[in-house]
Every structure is written in structure tokens, then in C-alpha cells.
Specification:
Number of domains: 2
Strand content: 5-15%
Strand order of the largest sheet: 9-8-7-10-11
Largest sheet: 5 strands, parallel
Order of helices and strands: EEHEHEHHEHEHEHEHEHEHHEHHH
CATH architecture of the largest domain: 3-Layer(aba) Sandwich
CATH class of the largest domain: Alpha Beta
Number of strands: 11
CATH topology of the largest domain: Rossmann fold
Length: 335
């Protein structure tokens, strides 16, 4: 989390280390269990009375629903603000919006185009700011993806995650994570600069990683021995005028049964959604037995709830981990 005076933000992974990410995963497991217990009449509401302003400059399904439900289930209240109606950086200056919302709310969740705008929100807000997607990155999505593999007991230093498609914001966040958590990440993308990931993120991750980060241009080469094949749309929001050209450019970058056969027999398929069936992924693979796409989509809820508690009730978050560590020590002493 990013430190800003006495508050924390979640804009990306740059201020996290591997230990803190695993701590967040363990808390996400706890959060997921609490949801089941809440259904049995034992609600877990550690942010009761907290209000979260959610700014959406981009269309949203999973992000909006998972954050709003998550805030509600934790005892808080979500206010949805359409970006066009409040006029971020047009009708009103970012710094004015940040300072005003800080007077009314306890946190800001923002889904924006320019990454510089969310950085400005965090700079001028006195409350935590959460990056719910920008054109540069999508850290909440990637935390949920990696958590899904962790939850299934599949996360380890040699896991090979292969992202097939555009070097977009989702790929950037995978690369950023690979600079912190050691694992083998491969991006298979066309050999043109516009389809490559962000240079600064790539250089920083390669400098810091204890794992492996590769950029290749042949999806079949990338898929060999893959533990995970990951797909995303070929045309992201804001690129609609490039759609026809991208359909031609990426036609060899489809996650289909043929590509899946090149990966390990146990390989799993992931997609951040929304999915264009028949383009970047076939319906047969998306709905097949190796797909965990709906699992990762569900886990957006649990991971984001964990982030909210970490930012809005850090004492509760610390208490869980202290108890967790003491329980682990007790188990070791008994064994």
C-alpha cells in the first residue's frame, strides 16, 4: 500500500513486498469464510459506518458490483458517482474533487482512464484511494487472479503464467506483480511497440524480480509447459476505432483447444472478463473443465473486501494476522 501522510492507498504493487501480498491472500481466505458464516447469522462488519465514494469513468460490471456488495457486506455504504456527471478534470479539478470527497467519505474507489488522475486523487485526498482500473494498470484484478491460484494450492515460484494477447493494463499489472512475487510470467503479444507492455513497468519488474519475465511473439512457443493460459480482450475500452485492425493482428493469439493442448495437461484457463467468445477465447475453452474464469471473477469480491479492511480498519487487519501467527506457532509446538 502507498503511504501518504497517515493514510494508505492502493494504486498498484510498488509499495508491497511478497510477504505483504501473501498476508493479503491469507486475509482474503478469512474474508471468504466470513461470508459463509454471515449466511449462517454471524455477520462480519469491520467497516460499519464507513462511506466509500466510487467514481466510474469507464463501464463496469464485476468491479462495480463486487465493490458495492463488498462494502455493504462489511458494514459500509457505497456512493456511486458517474465520471461524466461529476466531470473529473473537466467540470472540476481533480484536487478539488479529492479534497471535497475526503470531507464526506472514508475512502475513494476510482475506475478511470488516465493513471495520472488517480495519482492526483491520492496525492490530494486525505482518505485512502483504491485503483479500480486505469489505462495503465488493473491491480485489483491481478490480486484476485493470483489469489485464486493461491487458494487452490497452485501458487509456487515455478508456476508459469502465460498471458496471450495485448500488452495492456492487465498485462502491466501481471508484470508488476512478477517483480515482487517470484514466478514465471510470459507475455505473448505481437511484435509491434503499441502492443507491448509499459516500458517503465517492465524495466522495473525485471530489475527487481527473483523469478522470470519473458516477452515472446509466438503464442505456441509461450504456451509450452504453461500452468496457466490467460486471455483478455483484444480491443480495450477506448480502442474501439482500432477494432477491425486488432481482429486481424491478434487472430493467432486466441486461447483455443489447440493452444491448450500445447500447455501442460493440468493447465488452467483464466480471463479477466468481459470476454468476446470466438475472438480471444473460444466458448469451448471458456466453458470447459480447465477454466477457472468464474472462480477468479468471484474472488474479486473477497480480495477487494480484504483491501478495504486493510485500508479502513488496519487494527482489525493486524489483529487477524497476529492471531494467525500465534495459531501457526501453537500448531508447530503441538506437532
Amino acid at each position: 500500500m502507498d503511504n501518504h501522510t497517515n493514510k494508505r492507498d492502493f494504486l498498484g504493487f510498488s509499495h508491497l513486498d511478497a510477504g505483504k501480498i501473501i498476508e493479503l491472500f491469507d486475509f482474503s481466505l478469512f474474508i471468504k469464510k466470513q461470508r459463509r458464516e454471515a449466511a449462517a447469522g454471524q455477520p462480519y462488519k469491520p467497516i460499519t459506518g464507513k462511506t466509500v465514494a466510487m467514481i466510474f469513468n469507464k463501464p463496469s460490471l464485476r468491479t462495480r458490483v463486487s465493490f458495492e456488495i463488498g462494502i455493504h457486506e462489511l458494514g459500509g455504504y457505497a456512493i456511486n458517482l458517474e465520471g461524466k456527471s461529476i466531470g473529473v478534470n473537466s467540470r472540476e479539478a481533480v484536487e478539488d474533487i479529492a479534497q471535497l470527497l475526503s470531507r464526506y467519505n472514508d475512502a475513494i474507489v476510482a475506475r478511470l482512464h488516465e493513471h495520472s488522475v488517480i495519482e492526483a486523487l491520492a496525492k490530494h485526498a486525505s482518505i485512502p484511494v483504491i485503483n479500480a482500473l486505469t489505462d495503465l494498470s488493473h491491480p485489483c484484478q491481478i490480486l484476485a487472479d493470483a489469489f485464486t491460484l493461491y487458494e487452490k494450492g497452485l501458487w509456487h515460484e515455478k508456476i508459469k503464467v502465460v498471458f496471450v494477447g495485448d500488452g495492456n493494463n492487465v498485462a502491466n499489472s501481471w508484470i508488476e506483480l512478477a517483480g515482487i512475487l517470484p514466478f514465471h510470467f510470459v507475455l505473448a503479444c505481437p511484435d509491434e511497440s503499441k502492443y507491448m507492455p509499459d516500458t517503465k513497468i517492465l524495466e522495473s519488474a525485471r530489475k527487481n524480480t527473483k523469478g522470470t519475465i519473458e516477452i515472446v511473439h509466438d503464442p505456441k512457443e509461450a504456451a509450452r509447459d504453461a500452468d496457466v493460459l490467460y486471455a483478455d480482450v483484444w480491443t480495450s475500452m477506448g480502442q474501439e476505432d482500432e477494432a477491425e485492425k486488432r481482429l486481424q493482428t491478434f487472430r493467432e493469439y486466441q486461447v483455443n483447444p489447440e493452444l491448450l493442448k500445447i500447455a501442460k495437461p493440468s493447465a488452467l484457463v483464466m480471463h479477466c472478463m468481459p470476454a468476446h467468445r470466438g475472438q480471444e477465447i473460444t466458448a469451448e475453452v471458456m466453458d470447459g473443465p480447465q477454466s477457472i474464469i468464474m472462480d477468479e471473477a468471484e474472488n474479486r469480491l473477497h480480495v477487494q473486501k480484504a483491501i478495504l479492511v486493510k485500508l479502513l480498519n488496519h487494527e482489525e487487519y493486524r489483529k487477524f494476522h497476529l492471531t494467525h501467527r500465534l495459531q501457526n506457532v501453537a500448531r508447530k509446538l503441538k506437532s
